[in-house]
Write a structure and sequence with these properties.
mainly alpha, two-stranded antiparallel sheet, 2 strands, 67% helix
C-alpha cells in the first residue's frame, strides 16, 4: 500500500523528498489521502474532457466549419491573461485540492501557490526572451521558415509543452490565437508590431514540419 501511495503522490506532482515527509508523519491518514487522490484525479479527468472538446471546436474553427466564441477558446485551461506584459498564469485545480484535502500535508496551499507562481514566472521569463529573439530575426529580415527562426520556435514549443500537450492541432490553434486574439496581441505588440503575425507563421511551419 505504501508503494501505491508513493506512486499516487508522484502522479500528482510531489517530489520524492516531499512524499517521504508526508508518509513519515505519525498522523498520516491513508484513507483521507486516498479520498484526496480520487478527488484530484476526478478533477483532472473532467478537465481533460473539456480540453478535448476545446481542441475539437478549435479544429472546426480553423477549418472554417464553425466559428468559436472568445470565451470558448480558453475552456479547460483555467488561465488568466495578465495584462501589462506579465504573461499568462495557470494552475491545476488538482494542486489546490491536494493542498487542502490531505491530512496535515507538507505541501500546503501556500506551498502550492508559491511553486505555481515561481513556475509561471520562469515560463514568462523564458517566453519573453523568445519574443525578443524573434524580434531580432524580424529586424534581420529572416523568413518564418528559416532555420534560425525554427530553432527559436522549437524552444517556444518546449516551453508550451510545460503547460499543456502542444500537439500539431493545439500548437496551430495557439498560433492562431497569437495572431488573432486581442488579449494575446496586447502581450506581443509591445515587443514588435509584426511579431504576432511573424510568430504565428513560424509556429504553423514548425507544427507541419515537426508535429505531424
Amino acid at each position: 500500500m505504501q508503494l501505491q501511495q508513493i506512486l499516487f503522490f508522484k502522479e500528482l506532482g510531489f517530489s520524492l523528498k516531499q512524499i517521504q515527509k508526508v508518509l513519515g508523519k505519525d498522523d498520516f491518514d491513508q484513507l483521507s489521502a486516498l479520498y484526496s487522490h480520487r478527488k484530484s484525479l476526478t478533477l483532472e479527468w473532467e478537465k481533460i474532457g473539456v480540453l478535448l472538446k476545446t481542441i475539437d471546436k478549435t479544429i472546426k474553427h480553423m477549418k472554417g466549419k464553425k466559428k468559436m466564441k472568445d470565451k470558448e477558446i480558453f475552456d479547460g485551461f483555467n488561465i488568466t491573461l495578465v495584462k501589462k506584459g506579465k504573461g499568462v498564469e495557470s494552475y491545476s485545480a488538482a494542486e489546490e485540492v491536494v493542498g487542502k484535502s490531505v491530512k496535515n500535508p507538507t505541501k500546503s496551499v501556500a506551498d502550492v501557490e508559491k511553486r505555481r507562481k515561481a513556475f509561471y514566472e520562469n515560463i514568462t521569463k523564458t517566453t519573453h526572451a523568445i519574443f525578443r529573439e524573434l524580434v531580432h530575426c524580424i529586424e534581420k529580415g529572416l523568413d518564418p521558415d528559416s532555420d534560425e527562426v525554427q530553432r527559436i520556435i522549437k524552444k517556444h514549443h518546449t516551453s508550451a509543452e510545460q503547460i499543456h500537450t502542444a500537439t500539431q492541432e493545439v500548437y496551430k490553434a495557439l498560433a492562431q490565437l497569437y495572431q488573432e486574439h486581442p488579449e494575446f496581441r496586447k502581450q506581443l505588440d509591445p515587443f514588435h508590431p509584426k511579431l504576432a503575425t511573424f510568430m504565428a507563421k513560424a509556429m504553423k511551419v514548425f507544427a507541419d514540419r515537426k508535429l505531424s
